[in-house]
Write a structure and sequence with these properties.
Helix content: 10-25%
Oligomer: single chain
Low-confidence stretches: none
Length: about 110
């Protein structure tokens, strides 16, 4: 289910409401493979997969993947209680981020 969606703030760096806590987009995605354009509008969508869901990529649009980046890391729990004691836990965990383009411009998908 969609947990949150909206437009990013002017600094393009923080998304709120990921399990009730704020997280840095640049920490999660790493440096984007394209230059961000001043004045561009950026949007995000947080999709919650329940523990019974399998972990595969699901795409909300038809797009072309240009770059895949693997971030080695831990497998810390991401529940709100644990996140209080381990700030930025999403950026510490192992993840994959896909970067590409669709008809609306650049897009990223991370697990």
């Amino acid at each position: 289910r969609i947990q949150d969606l909206g437009e990013l703030s002017d600094d393009h760096d923080t998304v709120w409401k990921i399990k009730g806590l704020s997280h840095s987009i640049m920490s999660f995605l790493g440096e984007p493979p394209h230059q961000r354009k001043h004045g561009s509008r950026y949007y995000y969508m947080i999709v919650y997969l329940t523990p019974g869901d399998y972990h595969r990529f699901h795409s909300p649009s038809d797009w072309t993947i240009h770059h895949r980046r693997h971030f080695p890391g831990n497998t810390h729990p991401v529940n709100p209680w644990y996140s209080i004691f381990v700030p930025g836990v999403l950026s510490l965990n192992e993840r994959i981020v896909l970067a590409g383009t669709w008809k609306g411009g650049h897009t990223y998908l991370g697990t």
